[in-house]
Amino acid sequence: MKDLVEIIAKSLVEHPDEVVVTEKMSGKTLVLELKVAPSDMGKVIGKQGRIAKAIRSVVKAAASREDKKVVVDIM
Q1: pLDDT, tens digit (0-9, with 9 covering 90-100), for 26-71
Q2: Residue 31 forms beta bridges with which residues?
Q3: So what CATH class is 2-74?
Q4: Helix 2-12, helix 50-65: angle, nearest 10
């Protein structure tokens, strides 16, 4: 999951070297924290959060195949 979020984020931003994804377990839920450069934040979130929702949907679909619950937080 971490690699999936990292690949998607790096393809969207202008500074791919500043993309950092960290994993944390919170109970049964895997939390992925995505950090990007401040100038790239708008590209990852998108208008009205559409890109962020799309990223979360793709990760949720991939996680459901493995019977896991994954949450993506954009920092």
Answers
A1: 888 999 999 999 999 999 999 999 999 999 999 999 999 888 899 9
A2: 24, 71
A3: alpha beta
A4: 150
Over its C-alpha atoms, the chain yields an Rg (Å, rounded) of 12
* 23, pLDDT greater than 90: yes
Return the amino acid letter for 63: A
CA–CA dist 7, 5 (Å, integer): 6
- Which pTM was predicted? 0.90
* Alpha carbon distances (Å) from 43 to 4, 29, 62, 68, 69: 17, 26, 22, 27, 25
CB 34 within 8 A of CB 21: yes
Residues in the chain: 75
